[in-house]
Amino acid sequence: MHVPDGYLDAATTAGTAAVAAAGVALALRGARRELDERTAPMAGLTAAFVFAVQMMNFPVGLGTSGHLIGGALTAVLVGPWTAVLCMTVVLLVQAVVFADGGLTALGANTTLMGLVAVGVGYGVFRLLRAVLPATRTGVLAATGVGAFLSVPTAALAFSALFALGGTADVPAGTVAAAMVGVHLPIGLGEALISVAVLGAVLAVRPDLVRGARDLVRGSALAPRPEAAGRPAAPTAADAR
């Protein structure tokens, strides 16, 4: 999914850079409402996790491979605005340190994986949360579907950018078909990994999952005192 230097012409590259800059500016303002004593440390951990997992590729077929984008998962864990900032930092470090995605294409990559993937993944998550049961299973199902759809949607967005300003002499329809065909199985892997990670966090510290805090308040999902680092309340057996 990382766009290298030279795949898009100068006008399209500049346009995506402007879109990315505007999106990050909005995210900086929106993240003020999301960041608190729980979200801030979680954002750092989530960004580090996404960075590490994006460096690990899994085979898709026909010589291609894919990796976790992490937009939907990050948005569910720390909120959509903070997720945009996390993804932007990850993409910037990857481009500068590992040359994974070109520096001139940073705007395109931020737009695709930081704005489109996060926006679609979290948007689908919120829509499904409104209709699914307010349970742990409902949260996981909404996350899985959002994660799955975010990947081919980002691929389609790249196809649209390529149709506008691609530098290679390849028909736009061919690019779109190839991108969607490859990224559908990648999306399935994205969904499975996102559900597995979120399920693990919900099992131990559900209060750290911003997208599920409504289930924690006064519910059985509240973290155990031991898991939260607090001593358990004395029981009748302890008093004897």
Automatic annotation (TrEMBL):
It is a multi-pass membrane protein. InterPro entries: CbiM/NikMN (IPR002751). The chain crosses the membrane at residues 40-60, 72-97, 103-125, 137-164, 184-204. It comes from the Bacteria. The keyword Transmembrane helix applies. Pfam families: CbiM (PF01891). One of its GO terms (biological process) is transition metal ion transport. Keywords: Cell membrane, Membrane, Transmembrane, Transmembrane helix, Transport. It is found in: Cell membrane. Gene3D superfamilies: 1.10.1760.20. GO terms for cellular component: plasma membrane. The keyword Cell membrane applies. This is Cobalt/nickel transport system permease protein.
